[in-house]
UniProtKB/TrEMBL annotation:
Keyword Metal-binding in record: yes
Pfam families on file: Fer2_2 (PF01799)
Domain [2Fe-2S]-binding: start-end pairs: 82-156
Database matches in NCBIfam families: XdhC_XDHase
SUPFAM superfamilies associated with the record: 2Fe-2S ferredoxin-like, CO dehydrogenase ISP C-domain like
Protein name in the entry: (2Fe-2S)-binding protein
InterPro entries named among the record's database cross-references: 2Fe-2S-bd, 2Fe-2S-bd_dom_sf, 2Fe-2S_ferredoxin-like_sf, 2Fe2S_fd_BS, Beta-grasp_dom_sf, Diverse_Oxidoreductases, XdhC_XDHase
Keyword Iron on entry: yes
Protein keywords: 2Fe-2S, Iron, Iron-sulfur, Metal-binding
Amino acid sequence: MSKEQNIQYKLVRCKINGVMKETMVDVRASLTDMLRGEYQLNSVKKGCEVGECGACNVLIDGECYNSCIYLAVWADGKEIRTVEGLMGENGELSDIQQAFIDEAAVQCGFCTPGIIMSAVEILESGKEYTREELRKLLSGHLCRCTGYENILNAVEKTMQKRLKKEL
């Protein structure tokens, strides 16, 4: 039996950025591979591929996960959100995306989508966090070229605006 004959596939049905999708996936494929390969959602970056850098973060049923270590078959029946799903109907940026621009929290941009998805989870909790708590909540991300302070500024200011407080 050849290697190709040994591969098993499974049908995965899930909602991606608000749209029901279904595709056959190799049972060994990561969610990163499915999102990038099948749906061309290239905001989901292949960084370390071992769940350490956060570049592949997506929301699954509202909770942030490293999609590189999450099997695509586990997404069956789930709701998945990527940065592409944050844009408004006319392509306008979400408040957190705009805050990253306003606060110069982006340099090369490779890690940015994963950090933004973590920020979305934080912001959608509706809780107010201290700067130190935000730092800890965002600590699962590795960025090689920007200062983390600008990222913290963007998340903190967006949190405050959503909570209707001024800094």
